[in-house]
Design brief:
Blueprint lengths: L7 H8 L8 H11 L2 E4 L5 H11 E3 L11 E3 L3 H4 L12 E4 L11 E8 L3 E2 L2 E5 H11 L1 H6 L6 E3 L5 E3 L2 E5 L2 E4 L7 E3 L4 H13 L1 E4 L6 E5 L3 E5 L2 E2 L3 E9 L7 E2 L4 H10 L1
Antiparallel strand pairs: 1-14, 2-17, 3-17, 4-15, 5-14, 5-17, 6-16, 7-13, 7-15, 8-9, 8-12, 10-11, 11-18
Helix pairs in contact: 5-7
The protein binds fe (ii) ion.
């Protein structure tokens, strides 16, 4: 997949927080509430990543995590072939919600670069708030359709029946999305998926992370993915629930309730 040039400097310029500064936890919490994403640096050891993760979240164990809760994401031919194990390959991963087939995907995801790829391997991030606002402006019916309840099944047999956009309150929503073969969409929303994927594409940011750089995101708002790569690229990942107040969902840029009412009339 060809993509736009990396805009790492712009993303880091807008979202960077020095996690070693006094009061960093509160700054990070505020950034997550407001913008859903924090860019980080200086996390060059596993211990540093774990330390920061423990300051910010209650780490959730994952099928692939080590006993301390961190997952080492690196090419592993033994693991890469399994369902939902693309993280252990070196191919492209379309932007998605982490843990989308779980009843409740983890709220936070921290990902840092332990060793960059030789070529490729850039991280792709999409602010779902911007992409959904874009879809709403271009095609309000499509935006209402992907919020219809029970129109997407995420995962395999024991997966989750839900929808891409879940309304959590007045003007507040959360996003759940994946684009591999572990999701099935209802025929009711099929006609609108291309518009949605186009909106995701338009709003992607491409990050080329150096050693020790990373990001922390609100997994109910931002989608993440990766470009294909060569070399022994390795990342550390922590998933978990915030150790600070983070209201359910995020504030949409438009009145979703009105949109759903209008969409339902068609
Ligand atoms: Fe992922």
């Amino acid at each position: 997949m060809s993509g736009p040039l990396p805009d790492s400097a712009e993303v880091f310029g807008r979202h960077f927080v020095d996690h070693t500064a006094t009061g960093a936890e509160e700054v990070i919490a505020e950034e997550l509430r407001a913008r859903g994403l924090v860019a980080l640096g200086g996390l060059t050891t596993r211990g540093a990543v774990l330390d920061l993760a423990r300051r910010l979240m209650t780490i959730t164990a994952h099928r692939d995590s080590d006993p301390d809760g961190l997952t080492a994401l690196r090419p592993s031919p033994r693991r890469a072939g399994g369902a939902g194990c693309a993280g252990f390959g070196s191919g492209e991963m379309a932007v998605h919600t982490e843990g989308s087939s779980m009843p409740r995907p983890p709220r936070l995801m921290l990902l840092t670069c332990a060793r960059p790829a030789i070529s490729g391997g850039e991280c792709v991030l999409v602010d779902g708030r911007e992409a959904y606002a874009h879809l709403s402006e271009c095609d309000a019916h499509a935006a209402a359709s992907i919020a219809r309840p029970r129109t997407a099944f995420f995962g395999s047999g024991d997966g989750h029946l839900g929808q891409v956009i879940t309304v959590t309150g007045s003007r507040r929503v959360r996003i759940r999305m994946r684009q591999d073969d572990l999701v099935r969409f209802s025929p009711l929303i099929q006609p609108y998926l291309e518009h949605w994927k186009t909106a995701l594409d338009i709003h992607r940011h491409v990050l080329r992370l150096g050693t020790g750089q990373g990001y922390l995101l609100d997994n109910h708002r931002w989608l993440h993915g990766r470009y294909t790569f060569t070399g022994p690229r390795q990342c550390w990942r922590a998933l978990g629930e915030p150790a600070f107040a983070l209201p359910d969902g995020f504030e949409a840029r438009h009145d979703i309730a009105a949109e759903l009412t209008a969409g339902g009339r068609r």
